Amino acid sequence: MTHKETGLTRPEIGRYQISTVPFDRDLVLRSATYTPSGRVLVTYAKDESQGERQLALATMDDDGQNFRPFFSQLIPQRPKDNGIRLMVFPDDRRIFLGDFVIECSTSLETCKDPALLPVEYPAEVAIGDYISHRWSEIVVAPDNRHIAWNALLSNFAVAVFTGELRKSGGTYAIVSPQIVSTLDPFRPDPDHPGGVLPAPLRGGEVKQFIHGGTALSMVGAVRRDVPDSVALSLVTGKTEAITDTPGYTETTIFSPDERLGITMTSRFSRVTDPAILGLVPRPYPDSLNIGVSMLAYTYAVTGVRNQRPGNIGPALIDIQASKTQEGYQGMDLNTQEDWVYYSPMSWSPDGRKAMWIEGRRDSPSKRIQLVTLPDYRPGPPVAAATTPDRIAFGSSDLSRVEDYARAAQDIDVKVYGRKSGYLTYRHMPGGVIEKHYFDFSDDGTAIYSGDERLEANPLGRSTYRADLRLTGPKPGAMHLRMTFGPLGGLLPAQLIFSPDSNGLPLTRGYAEYDGHRLDVSTLVP
Question: Most buried in the list 141, 290, 312, 518, measured by CB within 10 Å?
């Protein structure tokens, strides 16, 4: 195991050391994650020709020793599935794959009799032309019973569910499912006829049960139109920002004591961080989002994993500092430019080590990276709590999923500022979104005027334009045009700087906020 001393973090965390976990060179590493016992679950192949669904699993120590295979089987493919995930149950006997559960009678580390059992999803989300994939992310609660998952719908919307995973005979079924995401974020404004009041949007990919199982770490938006990490309380329905960066930050996995986190982020990548899109905070970035998230993800994450130079972390963060300190960055855990982060991220149960996967740009090779905190003194792990069976803000009427999925992406609303002005928001079929600000202000000091427009075309060129002014204690402006290429290819969502018919670059302009300015010309194609 090779170590790299990388210096000091915050004083209470101390030193951090990054190392690569040795792995058999004769095998092909696919993925790895910590188990509740502190060992490592790995999935691997004998050679590159072996399909992803020919799943081979082993456990080993996090120094690469004591490699022990215990499962090898072809995982059947089912309509509307989304591949294979590895989500280890807290009981350390089972692994949730998405459409199947691998179950052992003893711990994974001693397992000799693994069984592959199918999972039955509720009929309303299992299949249908309105379902793109019945799950995209899956997480298991500390109580070993409850799960949460996302469904991807045919209109590109995402729905979030909770339920109980219950075994009956040789099958697991999800019972008592509830929709916990917001299906309708607008209600009439009683003070302004024709106006609406946007509600906070509960939604986004689920990443981890936290607070003992009473909340979820998720992708979300609180201040900006580019994703950050949020915590959703399953008790109150309120969301709390965990990160606040203008660029792309998607996932935070909490340490056992929930004082630290490890997060995927573009914040350390000056040439590919799409922070120019999120630098200026906008009103209601969740329910009135301008829709640049997929472009930002494809540019900053997919493209960087392919060929684009850049860095997507991960970062080691102090959770409290990340929530409260403006501009907090944490520690960059990427050590080599030609190696790029891949999920999953996981923590050792001792709370002093975290693990993630990296892939090499110029080959299919992957490696296991480990950060060790030799000086850190973890607090006690957060105890398991009761994950609610009934969620007050949830809905058990799953027939609403089809209605939501079949609803046309045709939104045309007017939102009045609490103090002055109004804004209009249109989400039209064909991937066009428009926002117009007319001296809009919720607090009487920060006043927005101008407009934004997105024309999205995943197979061709997408264009985002902004001519936006923000006056007040923290003034800002966006005079920006960004033209992206198709979302496929080796350089997906490529920024196009070639001239338009007037001789001006198709991508040009800047954003500034509170004295900080970003020019789009600094980003690479």
Answer: 312
